[in-house]
Specification:
Blueprint lengths: L2 E6 L3 H10 L4 E6 L2 H13 L3 E6 L5 H14 L1 E7 L10 H19 L8 E5 L12 H9 L9 H4 L4 H24 L4 E7 L5 H7 L4 H10 L8 H12 L10 E4 L3 H6 L8
Parallel strand pairs: 1-2, 1-4, 2-3, 4-5, 5-6, 6-7
Helix pairs in contact: 1-10, 3-4, 4-7, 5-7
Length: 274
Amino acid sequence: MNQVVVIIGAGGIGVAIARRQGFGKTLLLADFNEAVLSAAADELRTASYAVETQIVDVSSRDSVVALVDKASSLGSVMQVVNTAGLSPNMAPPERVLAVDLYGSALVFEAFGEIIAPGGAGLIISSMAGHMLPPLTPEENWALAFTPADKLLDLPVVKAVPNSMVGYMVAKRANHLRVQAEAIRWGERGARVNSISPGIIATPLAQHELNSPIGDGYRAMIAASPAKRMAPPEEIAVAASYLLGPDAGFVTGSDLLIDGGVIAAMFAGKLPTPS
């Protein structure tokens, strides 16, 4: 049966992963922005990839279900990669939580119903998930196991004061959700993991660097052991490992790829965002 690779988010990281994972398979590329989606699909088709596209809003159950139906109609869904997200500087906390928290859980839930045996899922989370102070065991459990449609009503979510904290809560929830979904996906013979990138050289990162919080980003780069950003291709290399057979014993895990920013925070060389 035809093998399908689903990439949600046609930005820099999504396209880099699509290039590594999609050749010789049917690549279903989805994004909220029609112009971005069309440009990315045209570029991949020019490079001889077999590309299907669909507009998706991950914060809409109907939209995600439609994407699942489209993927299922194309063949056996072997890989699902969710790179969709909003940064703290792009939207109010309600929208950040709708996309980065609820939308992420919704994609896990919906694709977990149809992922093929031997398949793998991956969410591109963020190092911000490692910046949040420890939550209570009850909060961790709730973020991991609460059905997606009830997530935004949790007290720990309703207490979010701003977009930065909302972003950190959402990304911590991604890590917890991966652990929970590893059990359910495992019942289908599939795996699911997350990657938490640091500052990656994409248009989104440039937007942040040019914003009022840009100095904070530059301070992170300067304080980190690597002292640089990373290109999207470095994330795609790690994604290829986690999605492939060499990672057959890896599920429910998060891979932090941040050049040492979190290590610098732990060492007291950087303040924790708030």
